Amino acid sequence: MGQIKEERPALVLLDVMMPRKNGYELCEELKKSDEYKGIIVLLLTAVGEAVASTNYTHWDGKNTLADDYIQKPINLDKLMGIVKDYLG
Fold it and tell me: Is the separation of the CB atoms in 46 and 15 below 8 Å?
């Protein structure tokens, strides 16, 4: 969250599987914070296909506070289109 505090981005892309804090946790932290709740959060993950072999569940993804939940692999042009749609 350090870089988010410093940079104050309009949008963040979070992978669900991150080393210290997973994307669901960081997303929830941001969206429940008065200071950061306006940041658009896009979760990128391959968990959807591998959910049976991870600690993550489909429930986690469906109940996240993220603005969008995008499964990998994703084409870079498609991702940029999604980002542009959110940023206007």
Answer: no
Q: How far is it, in rounded angstroms, from Cα 83 to Cα 64? A: 18
Please write the tens of the pLDDT for every residue from 39-85. 999 988 875 555 444 555 545 555 678 888 888 888 899 999 999 99
Classify each residue of 78-87 as buried b or exposed e, where b means 16 or more C-beta atoms within 10 Å of its C-beta: eeeebeeeee
| Angle, CA of 33, 36 and 40, to the nearest 5° | 120
| pTM attached to this predicted model | 0.79
Residue written as token pair 């997973």: 22
- Domains of the chain from N-terminus onward: 2-78 (3.40.50.2300)
Pairing of strands 68-71, 11-15: unpaired
